[in-house]
Amino acid sequence: MSNYRIQGATGEWEVVIGLEVHAQVTSNAKLFSGAATAFGAEPNAQVSLVDAAMPGMLPVPNRECIRQAVRTGMAIEAQINAWSRFDRKNYFYADLPQGYQISQLYHPLVGEGSLLIEADEKAGIPEDKVIGIERIHVEQDAGKLMHDQHPTMSYVDLNRSGVALMEIVSKPDMRSPAEAGAYLRKLRAILRYVGSCDGNMEEGSMRADVNVSVRKAGEPFGTRTETKNVNSVRFVMQAIEHEAMRQVDVLESGGTVVQETRLFDPGTGTTRTMRSKEDAHDYRYFPDPDLLPLVLEEDFLAECRASLPELPDAKRKRYVEVLGLTPYNARELTAEVETFARFETLLAETAKATGKGEADVATQVANWSLSVAPGVIKALGDEGDPANATASAQASILAMADKAEISGGQAKEIFEIVLKTGRDPAEIAEAEGLKQVSDTGAIEAAVDAIIAANADKVEQYRAGKEALFGFFVGQTMKAMQGKANPQLVNQLLKGKLG
Amino acid sequence: MSVDKATVAKIASLARIRMDDAALEQMVPELNGILQWVEQLGEVDVTGIEPMAAVIPNTLRLRDDVVDADPLTGGGKRDDVLANAPAAEHGFFGVPKVIE
Amino acid sequence: MTDLTSLGVKDIRDGVAKGDFTAREVAESFNAAVAEAASLNAFIVTTPDHALAAADKVDAARAAGETLGKMAGVPIGMKDLFATHGVQTTAASHILEGFTPRYESTVSQKLWDAGAGMLGKLNLDQFAMGSSNETSYFGNVTSPWKKAGSNAAMSPGGSSGGSSAAVAARIAPAATGTDTGGSIRQPAAFTGICGIKPTYGRCSRWGIVAFASSLDQAGPMARSVEDCAIMLGAMAGFDPKDATSLQMDVPDWEAALSSDLRGKKVGIPREYRMEGTDQAILDSWEQGKAWLKDAGAEIVDVSLPHTKYALPAYYIVAPAEASSNLARYDGVRYGLRDLPDGVGLQDMYAATRAAGFGDEVKRRILIGTYVLSAGFYDAYYTQAQKVRALVARDFARAFEECDVILAPTTPTASFPLGSMNEDPLTMYLNDVFAVPASLAGLPAMSVPATINADGLPLGLQLVGRPFDEQGVLNAGLAIQQRAGFTAKPEKWW
Ligand SMILES: [Mg+2]
Ligand SMILES: [Zn+2]
Q1: CB C218 within 8 Å of CB C235
Q2: Full-prediction pTM beyond 0.80?
Q3: What is the fold of C4-261+474-480?
């Protein structure tokens, strides 16, 4: 249970949040035409006759867009509707050439599913929580209006018109800005794992419509407002906070919340009424007569399922249960596609290089990946080239460490040189003398010399002053110029000190 | 069900057709005549009947995800789509300024 | 030498192929006939150069010994609902006046590829909404036919009224039409010509200005069943650009034409015996039965119990789709823009659409908007689509007992322009026999049967199973051969 509450003059208010996320489907061509979807083209350069709704133009759906939405649905364990169809949502706006958006209302492609957000004490999420997902449907994006290029005109660019979107509608299950933020991050991760959306919020690949209402504990849902097209996790959290406060203010001063569409202003972190959509509440949805029912065959569904990768929750679980990582490390490593991809490559290489099982080296590789390597890279700054940090180079360092050929400190030093020069780690260890001594004879000689030179301390130690053990280790390492295998030093000292 | 002038005005506004009073007055009985007539459909017993979804039993064909595979439905048609525009500047369509 | 304008598609094509005359001679003759017939107002724009250029290509191809297309050397009229590259395409509306597409509809492209040329863009009811050709922004089309003893201008039917008038007046050997709820068959019946609406999905809708997407089908209008078979063969075919296009081969309808109906059953739907139908129409229907029996068919009674409800269902479904299909005419990307001083975007839409749409179009947009609006959708639209499913089921059951259905095309013959304008409903009733087949997406054809006491043509309608255009054409041919319909309008234009 979230303990997030707004303290009003009349008491505590609970915030109820639902998110409608519009995620651009990763595809080459648009949902219903062959025009390209790439970001950043010249105005109206990626527009087909279909996208501009020229008279007589017709939509034909792109299989890949349907496939990606189905795969996304499978990733949230949602019901996939083998029979669905497209509807028209009718309204007039300059970014909507057809005068309707082809969307899905009555029979969406994907039905109910759910998503798990993980406990995060610091963020105010005391325990894991399942957020319900109502549906995912596929629809067209609209074009873009530019208001500041001409004194009396707005300019219309239809490059985005017809780009495929998935609208992922959550249930009103979130109770704090933090939960909404966690939901968005998790959803983004899943989309990126699946490869159905690049999750690039700056380029508008993911936008959220934020539905917010407030209520006193135990009361029914209040009237909600919808803040449109908020395009970052931080802004979504800000918009919720502001909107919830605003609603509390309205209610506490005796007003009522109006169900309306609002806009978020990132500059001020506030929301305001959106004037242009005020009278567009009657969308007159009906099945698009240009399109037939979409019936998904068994083999299509089977391919969608077979092509799904291991998903964040499963991966995290496997990292803990099979690889023996700490829950914290598992979460860190699975949060982003790039992170786990790098980790898994390095893990495989390291296992190969050491001849051990992945589970046997996983903790070492995880620590290296999460703290050691990033620390070295960061400390080195511009002096190093991260491109030199290939998986095989790192695996070779980790393998030397695993075999106790090098110490932890030497591993860092070697990695530094790798970053700076791209040289081979084994060659560096050899050439720079960055190896630890595992020759028992040499270490034994050093230990014997130190025991002989410190008879008084040996006596004290044997009388029970165990803290002196560190002293002997330090002396031995010093004598060995820091290159002795610490495990061997320990072993030999223990044996000789008795 | 029948419509009054205010309802017709609301529909006309939804349909973005400007209508003055005289036009609305004239449209009210015309629409009511048609609506009354179509309402005989209410007599039909449609128990267990699904609304028609496809005229000829057929399902949706999907297209491959290939850019500009057919030039007629592909992009890169800026000049063609702007050619008939009442206002086009700098590669954009122009509309009266919108305040969002 | 024969007057080339008296020839139809087959005779022109074969004559050009044989070298009896050149395609250019044919094009020139029809161009001249078109120019003379301006008083019919059948064309919105004429394109004599298009016809000539296509003809020259055919003549050159023939000279080079190349294989000629199905329609080689035949100049046709193109209903102004088909987008034609570089040629104004208006749907007979003010809102699209001056619109010159940079693309060509699939059907017109297929016709050009088959060697046809274009005489011009034919007038029609605005956005194909009408049954008399009185809703065009570019004026009424006048039928070449006159009522005996009257000089009143008669309706050529609609919405393909420019097409029917041009073919009946012999200023075009054939023309394209589109049929949403009878718009090929009713004008064909009114003007004594043939017209076939194929199975929904046979002809691509790509590039045809949409009226009601689930109903719109293109088809040929010509003076004989053979000509229709040839031209439909050139128009039909799978088009990946239309998601409702049928992915199946186009049979060679022309080659398979046969009026031998032995072994075939012809169904007579008893519910088509409606009040308000002219006695002459009922008589021609009886005559039609006799002709088909003579051709070897067995006549059986069938029942289409929901016939009565087809028309009201149509007048919900079609306007609903139209209200949405016509939303794109907003003054932003093409066509008319009415921008009163100082108004915003939404007012520009309202002003543009008020100025750009005619009354009938507005009426249907309003009806369609209303039946889809919140609170009314299920009562009107869903109910209508259920009734539509029942109409289709009626046909499916009837076709368990017969191969083709024979019915009148219209309840009356043509009427004088202006005589039916007081109540939109009386006009709608014109399509009472045509609409059921449209709702069910079935192939249906009108062929001329006889002349009534006023000297006006009457048509008979044949409706077939899905994809069975052949059965429809064959029964049509059997009627054509026995009806011996040779009447043609006296030239007065
Ligand atoms: Mg939304
Ligand atoms: Zn949406």
Answers
A1: yes
A2: yes
A3: Amidase signature (AS) enzymes (3.90.1300)
